[in-house]
Write a structure and sequence with these properties.
single chain; 204 residues; elongated
Length: 204
């Protein structure tokens, strides 16, 4: 994996340029896909020179990785916060589920990016692995650690349970939003979440 150079930037001007480059990259990836996007197109979309792009990112793969890292970090914090998860499972699990579904439903740009990654994963498997590494792994690990810290739930496998919890929410979102199935399989977020959390808590 190519090394990106974002961590080496100094000064507000450089940071602003990086933001512009990442915004331009997002625009190009969504329109042209990964294969159809070039550093020249990114530079033009960002309103900077090609040399400026290369001064911050070694290559297209490094640029894509930085883009995924930036977006997933913000999304993770908006759902999980910056502090370790604390509180009663009945409350925390419902809050997490509501935030996750609301976020997935509201961010059309993110859904479009996921379509690009999935569509390109056959030719560029490393792109999909970047998504799993930075988007999915932290979520599973954080939720697994929280579930493990509550032995009263009597969960035989907190790690697998975390995947079941997140997987249910993602599948529901895909069915209702991505595949436009709301009218075919109508169900409210609250109803699904109530059932999901109750199933987990009733094990205790």
């Amino acid at each position: 994996m190519a090394r990106n150079k974002v961590s080496n930037i100094d000064g507000g001007t450089s940071i602003n340029k990086v933001d512009k480059i990442l915004q331009g990259a997002m625009q190009e990836f969504l329109v042209h896909g990964y294969a159809g996007t070039s550093m020249d197109k990114v530079a033009a979309a960002a309103g900077v020179s090609k040399a400026t792009v290369y001064s911050h990112f070694q290559d297209k793969e490094g640029l894509f990785k930085a883009l995924i890292e930036q977006r997933t970090r913000k999304k993770f914090q908006s759902v999980f916060g910056k502090q370790p998860l604390e509180g009663e499972p009945n409350i925390i699990l419902r809050q997490l589920a509501m935030k996750a579904l609301a976020q997935m439903s509201e961010d059309e740009e993110h859904r479009a990016l996921m379509r690009v990654i999935i569509g390109e994963s056959g030719r560029f498997p490393k792109l999909a692995q970047v998504c799993v590494l930075y988007m999915m792994k932290p979520v599973f690990e954080t939720l697994s650690q929280y579930l493990s810290s509550h032995p009263e739930l009597n969960l035989p496998d907190p790690e697998a349970t975390a995947r079941v919890f997140v997987g249910t929410l993602v599948h529901f979102h895909i069915t209702q939003e991505v595949l436009h199935g709301k009218d075919i399989l109508p169900m409210t977020n609250e109803r699904l979440i109530d059932c999901l959390v109750d199933l987990m808590l009733n094990n205790s």
